């Protein structure tokens, strides 16, 4: 599963219109969204980058006004992490990777007044992106990139969702465009006043179930912490590996 997940991430990056190559790295670049999680590099499988390769990669990120950053499964390219550390990069975290298949999905407890549906109108996409924006600590309104990501998921064969409770925006998230039947559950956020009420579990299960209904055979994700991992475990997600998030502090 680990190799399939890394292949998924790299293939999706290669499909993005603004990606670029630097040595043995493919860089996912989002020109309209500065968020570090939307801009990162993935090494080629079994890459053995030189100091020059890494210096060129850093220079490319700086030229695009982005934080030099990589996300990848260490087993995919074991020589890359030591080379990055030698170049001054710092490990942000080692995040567990969870996955769920159709026969493993569990049904969470119902939430009174909850309604989950895919956004259709401009207002609905903006409301969903606004929940994500504030849920991840942003101020003001959502970025264009956040709205575009949700639209792209829906239009490309993935799934996006807006959850409401008694008509009020309560949660949002998406499952990205599939690659060989695999998709990523990402961007899931719950509005502050609706947390700890089961909205996150119900929304995650809805997105995952809808992805399976659209032909996915597995969905993976990277939980934000132990508490969040327990929520996903409660609907059937299980650990399959570990992903390294590593970056270089701004110059």
UniProtKB/TrEMBL annotation:
Entries under PROSITE patterns matching the protein: GNAT
Alphabetized GO MF terms:
acyltransferase activity, transferring groups other than amino-acyl groups
Q: Where is the N-acetyltransferase domain?
A: 120-251
Which positions carry the signal peptide feature in this UniProt record? Answer: none
User: Is Transferase a UniProt keyword of this protein?
Assistant: yes
Ranges annotated as spanning the membrane: none
Q: Which UniProt keywords apply?
A: Transferase
- Family matches, as Pfam families: Acetyltransf_1
UniProt-listed InterPro entries: Acyl_CoA_acyltransferase (IPR016181), GNAT_dom (IPR000182)
This one is known as GNAT family N-acetyltransferase
